[in-house]
Structure formats: C-alpha cells, structure tokens
Amino acid sequence: MSTERVNATDSDGSSGANETGGADGRRAATGATDLDAEGLVLGYPDAPEPVVDGASIAAEPGSATALVGPNGSGKSTLLKGLATQIAPEEGSVFLDGRDVHSMDTKALARKLGLLSQESTSPNSITVEDLVYHGRYPHRGFFDSVTDEDECAVNDAIELAGCGHLRDRDVGSLSGGQKQLAWIAMALAQDTDVLLLDEPTTFLDLHHQMEVMEIIETLRDESDVTVVVVLHDIEQAARLADRMIALKDGEVRARGPPSKVVTEDLLAEVFRVDAEVVATESGPRVTPLRARHE
Amino acid sequence: MSGERSAVGGEASARRSTGASRFGWLLDPKLLTVALGSLLVIGAAGFVQVSFGTYSMTVGEAWRAVFDPAVLLDPRWLLNFLLGEELMRTVTGFRGELPSLSHGTLIVWNIRLPRVLVGIIVGMNLGVSGAIFQAVTRNELASPFILGVSSGAGLLILLTLVVFGGLSAFLPLVAALGGSVAFLIVYAIAWKNGTSPVRLVLAGVIVGTVFGSLQTALFFFADDIAVGQSAIQWTTGSLTGTDWAQVRLALPWTVVAVLLSIAGSRQLNLLLLGEQTAKSLGMSIERVRFALSGVAVLAASASIAVAGIVSFVGLIVPHVVRNLVGSDYKRVIVGCLFVGPALMVAADVGARLGMSALTGADAQVPVGIVTGLVGGPYFLYLMRRRQHMGEL
After folding, report:
1. What is the domain-level CATH number for residue B125?
2. Closest approach of chain A CAs to the CA of B275, in angstroms?
3. Fewer Cβ in 10 A, N or C end of chain B?
4. Other beta carbons less than 10 A from residue A94's beta carbon
5. Do B280 and A122 count as a contact with CB atoms less than 8 A apart?
6. How far apart are the first and last CA of chain A?
C-alpha cells in the first residue's frame, strides 16, 4: 500500500522538489528517506529510570507514522531522541542508514526537522521572518537570502495556509494561528523527515483540522516521511499509515490503524474501556469508562 | 494549482527582494529615526563637551578649534592622534617637529574631543555587549557584567592597585584580563553536559558574590586615600582624563567586536527562538553560545580597559533599542551602536560639568554614577509600564 503511494506520488513529489528549488536531486534519486531507531534507551540526567527503554521503530519512507500512548509513556522523549535532542544511552537512530549522531548538525537539520510541543519566540517578530528562520540549515554563515530560500518560504506559508498572517507579529496571533506559523517554519526547513510533537494539542477544532490537513497533504502529495505524536487516537488513526502505541517507554503495538486501534489495546495501553467501531473514515472510538485495576 | 502557486511566489518574492536585499533592512524607518535621533544627541552633547570646561573659550572659538584646518587638513596631525606619534612617524616617514597649533586647538583636540570619542566607543561596546548577553541568556535583565565580567575586572583592579602597584601602568589590560578570566570561570562552573541560560546566570551570581567580597576586603588594605579614589574611579566607571591613548587602545577591539556581533546577529535571532528550536534547525548551540559570549566579553573588556566598569549602560541601551525597533537582532545591534554612544556621551556631560553647574565646585564625578542615576528611574518606568519583565 505504501509502495503504491510512493510510486503514485513520485511525479508530484519531483515537481514539488523543482518548485522548491531542491536541486540536489536527492529525492528524485533515492525517493523518500527512511528513519529507523534500534534499541533506543533514552533518559534524562536527573531521572533514575530511562523514559524510553529499548524502543525500536521504523518510519516507512514517505508515509505518516503516528505515535500514541498515555501521558508519560515516552512519546515526546522518543521523538526528541529521534531528532538527536537527547543523546541515547543505548541504541542508535539511522537516517537512510547513517547514524544521525555522527552527522553534522546542519546537514542533519537539512534532512530531519522537529517541531517541538512548546515553542517560544519574541512577540515582535513577523510570521514571515519566523518562517525564514526555517532556512537556517540551508544558509552559510554569511549567505544572504537566495531564490531557493524564497521559494521554500512561500511554499511553506502557502501549504500551512497562513499567507494572510504573513506580516502579522507572532505575539498578536491566537494559539492556533501561532501553531500554523511554527508549522510553516518547520516546512520551510524543507526536510525529508518531519517530526511533529503533539501539533494539535490545545488548538480549537478549526485549527486542529487545519493542522491535520497539512499533514494529510504532506502524506499524500510529497515524499516527506512524517512521524507525529498525537493524543487523539481517532485523529491518529485517520491521519497515519501506521501507528505505534507506547506505554511505559516500550512499544506495545504497531501496524496499520485498523490493527492497532482495538478495544483490547485501549484497555491495555490507555486503561479505558471503549467501544471501537470500524467506519469508512477509520475506526471510531467511544470511550466508556476508565479502568481501575 | 502550480500556476497559482508560482504566481503567489512571484509576487511575494518581488516584495522580499526589494524590501530585504542584503542591506535593505538598514533602511527601516524606525531604525533610521533611532540613528538620527542618537546622532543629534551625540552632536549636542559633544557640542557642550567641546565648548565648556575649565579653560574658558567662547562657543565660537571652541568650534573653530574643532574644525581647525591646521589639524583637519594635516594628515600628520590626524595620524598623530589616531595612531600615536611613533606609528605616525613610521607611516609618514616624517622626522621633524609637527607644526604648532593654537592653544585652543590643542585643548580641544588633546583633551575634550578624545573624551567624547572614548565615550562613543564605550557606549557602542556596552550596548552591543549587553544586547548579546540578553539574547544568550534569554533574559532582559542581563547586562555585559552578568557573567562575572565586572567582578573579575574589579578584583584584578583592586589587586593591582593595592598589592601589585608595579603593574599600574598595565591597569587597562589587567582589568580586561580579569573580566575575561572570570567569564571563563563562570562558564566552567555552569558547564555540565552543556550549559543553559539559567545555569550561566546562576554561576555568574556565584562568581560575582565571591569576587565582590574579595574586592571589598581588599579595600581595607588600601592605606592610601589616593589608591582608594583611583579604585573607586575604576570600579564605578569614569572618563576623566581619557585621551587619544584610550581611543587607540579600544578602537581596534571595538571594530572587531562590532563586526562580529553584526555577523552573528542571525545566530542571536535564532537563540531567541529557544534552545530546542535552534537545535532542531541545526545550530551547534553550545559552540554558538560560547562564541557569542566571547564577542560580548571582548566588547565589555574593551570598554573596561578605557573607562572602568560603567554600570547600567549595557542594561538599558538594548531595552531602549528593542522598544524602538523591535526584536530583530540585526536592527537591535545596529541601533545599540547609536543609542549606546548617545547615552554615554550625554551622561558624561553630567559627570564632567554637572557638579560645577550645580555647586560651582570644580569637581568631576565618575560617569558611572550618572548612568546609574539615569538608569534606575528608567527601569522603574519600564517596570510600571509593562506587565512582563524578565524573559525575552
């Protein structure tokens, strides 16, 4: 299924690459990039136990993978580990077969982007300037803005649907609008792999849908490999080609949404009794009660 | 779809390239206003500084002295001031006596004008240094002296004056050295698998406290009142008695520090987006943070070497500039290059002439006292006007 998708979108993807001026031809040559983590053990210096204990995950090239799990299950930590924000105690992360920790930070940032859960910025920066910061890894120390940068920024702003906010100060935006601006910045980074940490949390319904649609577009019309942490299981099931359920830092289930989102899994991982009904737009989850055992 | 996309792109890119070519951002109207306003202040304060003083001159005489063609049109005199006599002679190969100047011209060119220039240089350095430290620590209450620089410099100044009197000739260099060493100690203390803004500030407080105590202790061993006076001048910051030697000492480092900080302004902008974002955009955050702090320490040291520890300028100037031109650091740095000198030169008018105007006494106060007196109320005003202070 996913190979079909990659093939079907190859032509789209390459024309997109030309438009954004990604002239190094990496996409055309190798197709989408894949991201693998093996036996990843991640922790924080002041925590005795590792938060993620021996997780191995593989994000299929060009597809969308959703990480779900209860609070404290290690989803965000895993994402930070994948993005080298945290050095793993054991295990390694491979991007197209190369160990990410051996890569130059800027070279890595041209291939792999991470949008963190909480992002801060000065209030008096315009959305456009913020998005231009996404071009940082593509620019040398003394380089000025190139046409390629401009195209990438314009495409990113358009895809994130925040063209009307372009000249507004970030400080004057609502939470949802801010998130769109940050997503535009991550898109302008023009990476092969994009990691998103709870991009829809705290947003109103409209902006949740906006963000979902952006990710859907990435999934369907580009070769970008997306890994996204989501709280909402239905959203995750609708959005992702594959899902990975985490609990206590370990992978409990993986596979296509229809296999992962089951009543048994919800009981085991999320500790809720729920009713799962398969519908055309994916499984519908009706939580019934919390389990106390 | 793709046609529509490129149309949008074309329109926007046209706007971007006219608005923000390599130096287009300099033409920002707010920045231009700030620069112009500051230049007016510097001009007015400089006018006062050059015209008034112990040696009485009419305003007209003073200005004729400034624009004395005997200096301005004689490269030997200009080089003599800018490079020093020895270098001037090697550059020009001139062996004889320099042509004599009128008394007024000598006073203005030897005493009053260089003091204004030193004020300008110190203001630039402190403004830029403060701006960098505020971004690096992501704290708007940071000053050039937050990472132990002032306490290290102060301690070595006292040590030199009280214990190693023989080194007094090298006091400027010793002071700058002390600041830099203290900064390195602060960094070493803060380092634990990398640093963070909070750890850096805390380490700065620790080092500052210890060094400050040692410095106060040394005051007790200063038996000579002149030594004490001199120590106070250095630790509060003063432009008294500065001349071309100070200009020559600080100018090269200032040029280096200013160029590096303008070059680093994009990195500063990225630091403001927070550590996580900067990292995920591929910045080697520890390296950048250390390098930029180094530039800021260089600037602070250059100002300490010629004027001692002038408080508050490095704290206030970036605030003023940010309020006027916004948070883009390219503009902030350039703005600081104008507002810093304006504040410094204006404050020095008060320091040099204030006492004689108020009391009639022929005395000067250290300029650091004036900047502190101006800075405190300004901060009070900021605190009253704004809800949130602290984090950038």
Report:
1. 1.10.3470.10
2. 9
3. N
4. 14
5. no
6. 39
Do A114 and A80 touch, CB atoms closer than 8 A? yes
Q: Do B282 and A110 touch (CB under 8 A)?
A: yes
Query: Exposed e or buried b for every residue in B174-186, given b needs 16+ CB within 10 A?
Result: bbbbbbbbbbebb
Residue B75 lies in a domain: no
Determine which of B265, B277, B288 to mutate to test the interface with A (most A C-beta atoms within 10 Å).
B277
Q: What is the DSSP letter of A266?
A: I
Report the CATH number that the domain containing residue A162 is assigned in CATH. Answer: 3.40.50.300
Read off the pTM: 0.85
Number of domains in chain B: 1
Per-residue pLDDT of chain A (293 residues; tens, 9 = 90+): 333 333 333 333 333 333 333 333 333 344 678 888 888 888 887 778 888 888 888 888 889 999 999 988 889 899 999 998 888 888 889 998 889 888 999 999 999 999 988 788 888 889 999 999 999 999 887 777 888 999 999 999 999 999 999 999 998 999 899 999 999 999 999 999 999 999 998 889 999 999 999 999 999 998 899 999 998 899 999 999 999 999 988 899 999 998 999 999 999 999 999 999 988 878 888 989 998 87
A274, A287 contact by CB (below 8 A)? yes
- Check CB contact of B277 with chain A, cutoff 8 Å: yes
Q: Which residues in chain A are closer than 8 Å to B5, comparing Cβ atoms?
A: 19, 154-155, 158
Does any domain span residue B81? no
d(CA A198, CA A75) in angstroms, rounded, equals: 9
For residue B377, tell me if it sits in a domain.
Answer: yes
The range of the structural domain enclosing residue B154 comes to 25-67+102-385
Number of domains in chain A: 1
Size of interface A-B (CB pairs under 8 A): 92
Q: How far is A151 from chain B (nearest CA, A)?
A: 6
For residue A122, list chain B residues with Cβ-Cβ distance below 8 A. Answer: 272, 327, 392
Full domain range(s) for residue A90: 2-290
Q: Which of B9, B270, B392 sits opposite A133 (nearest CB)?
A: B270
CB B234 within 8 A of CB B245: no
Residue B60 in domain = yes
- Cβ-defined contact of B9 to A150 (cutoff 8 Å): yes
Q: Which two tokens stand for residue A81?
A: 């580990």
What is the predicted ipTM?
A: 0.81
